[in-house]
């Protein structure tokens, strides 16, 4: 009897849920948990219920809009590349030439 193997066509593709890719799903989840805690804190502090719902609702819409915009703009790894690119210095400064002279002399011995 022949064995039937099912091929997973999604291998090496980013996880995607309703347009959100990869780590943005986690960002949205963390944000929604934070908003749930904010609602609970406001409710415990006796803030009027309509005001609690309005504040959390507006923040939720802002969160969802921001996360979808980041996902669409940067893609799966784009935001990590963007952060890494900002950490690259514009120029290097040195008060002495000795570092570069030592590099040149070491390169000459090996080559």
From TrEMBL:
The protein, known as: DUF4133 domain-containing protein
Keyword field: Membrane, Transmembrane, Transmembrane helix
Residue intervals passing through the bilayer: 24-42, 48-68
Matching InterPro entries: DUF4133
Organism in which the protein naturally occurs: Pedobacter puniceum
Pfam families linked to this entry: DUF4133
């Amino acid at each position: 009897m022949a064995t039937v193997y099912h091929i997973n066509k999604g291998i090496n593709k980013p996880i995607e849920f309703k347009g959100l890719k990869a780590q943005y799903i986690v960002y949205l989840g963390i944000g929604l948990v934070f908003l749930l805690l904010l609602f609970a804190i406001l409710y415990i502090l006796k803030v009027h219920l309509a005001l609690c719902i309005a504040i959390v609702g507006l923040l939720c819409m802002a969160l969802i809009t921001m996360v979808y915009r980041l996902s669409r703009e940067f893609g799966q790894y784009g935001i990590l590349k963007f952060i890494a690119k900002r950490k690259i210095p514009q120029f290097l400064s040195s008060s002495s030439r000795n570092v570069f002279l030592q590099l040149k002399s070491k390169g000459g011995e090996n080559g």
